[in-house]
Structure formats: C-alpha cells, structure tokens
Design goal:
The protein is of the alpha/beta class. 44% of the residues lie in helices and 21% in strands.
Length: 223
C-alpha cells in the first residue's frame, strides 16, 4: 500500500486530499506544520509527501530543505501561488513536482501517478531504498545524499539483509545464514563487531538516526 504524508496547516485541505487519495486506497498520514512533518518522516517511511508552501512555524521551503537532508522521498509542492519564480524555487530546491491551488482531483491524481511511476522505474529490480540510503544490488554501491559510503563486502551484505527484512528482528543465527552461510566459523561478537562498524560508517556519512537497532537478547533490526 502506498503511504502518503499530507503536510498543510489548513484542516479542510488535509481533509480534501485525504478524501481524494482514500478513494485510491492510499494510506494517509497528516501533519499540520513542517516541524510535525519532519518528526513523522524521522520515524516512518513514506512513498510520497504532499507539502504546502504557506505554513506557520516552518514554511514549505524550509521544510523541503530539511526533508532533503534526511530523505529522498518524492515531494509535490502545493501552494496558492502560481508565479514562475515559486515553481523554479521548488523544483531547484529538491521538489519533484508543483501543483497550484485550486486544482482538480484528476490533475492531482495524474501528477501523483506519473511521479510514482518515474520513481519506480529508477528503483525497480536493482536498487533498494531505505531512509534516504540507496543500495545498488548489482554495483554493490551504497550512497546517501549523493555521497558514496564505502563499505566492506560483509558490511554491504549486512545492510542489504537488514533493509530487505526491515521491521523484522533478525537473530545472530539468521544473520549468519543470510550473510556468511554454513561456512561461518566465528562467534557472536564477530557479528556484533561488523554491525558496530557498519553503524559507525552510516553515522559518519551523516545519518543521525540509528538505522540498525539492537533488540536485547535476540539480535538486530532495521526499524
């Protein structure tokens, strides 16, 4: 199911968008300002963000800038302004599309579906995406915010396994089976050491959130 975060300070606009998208079986979440949106994005995965420009506390431009520091989630800017300058600002600041209020349901859905198709073509088959991290399965390259993260073969395989099983707790035995196979001759602390090194490299790359969580007495998981 496609998860969409609607960010708008107007209750009626959030309700209208929820009605439109709900008809297409999208899972909807809402935020009334940029600060709340950033919090939600930090704890949840979304397939699309619809972001209003004119908001209190933190406007759409500042919210967009902060989202792009932690996520490459597709974003459609939503505003009552129609000046070409606003479109240029939005698209050059990291937005994927721009829709001017008032709009018709058909135009909104057409833009959403076109954007999701474009994103899907980029990520199908050969690439995993998780919290802004891109994992090239064939190239075995990992990047975050367009910067490559240099991982060892074992670290890459660990990250891949965690992302492929995101939300699921993996025991050390399961990690051994997925990464090393039956030839593994090490101990639990060997696995812990690799996980520690992977965490440190992700943090050094600017990823503040703990991507790999310890589940005491069991193993690890990617939340």
């Amino acid at each position: 199911m496609i998860r969409v975060l609607i960010v708008d300070d107007e209750v009626q606009m959030r309700q209208l968008l929820s009605i439109y998208l709900g008809q297409y079986q999208y899972q909807i979440d809402e935020a009334c300002n940029g600060k709340e949106a950033l919090h939600k994005i930090s704890i949840s995965e979304y397939d699309l963000v619809i972001l209003d420009v004119m908001m209190p506390i933190m406007d759409g431009w500042e919210t967009l800038e902060n989202i792009r520091k932690v996520s490459d989630v597709p974003i459609i800017m939503l505003t009552a302004k129609g000046q070409i300058e606003d479109k240029v600002i939005g698209l050059t600041s990291g937005a994927d599309d721009y829709l001017v209020k008032p709009f018709e349901e058909a135009e909104l859905m057409a833009r959403i579906e076109a954007l999701l198709r474009r994103i899907q073509k980029k990520t199908d088959g050969d690439t995993l995406k998780y919290k802004g991290i891109l994992i090239g399965l064939t190239s075995r390259e990992v990047s975050y915010q367009n910067e490559e993260i240099n991982l060892t073969q074992t670290e890459f395989d660990l990250l891949r396994v965690f992302v492929e099983h995101k939300g699921k707790v993996l025991s050390r035995e399961q990690l051994v089976d997925q990464v090393w196979g039956i030839d593994f001759m090490g101990e639990d602390r060997t696995i812990d050491s690799h996980v520690k090194n992977l965490r440190e490299k992700l943090k050094k790359a600017g990823i503040e959130e703990t991507i790999i969580q310890t589940v005491w007495g069991i193993g690890y998981k990617a939340p």
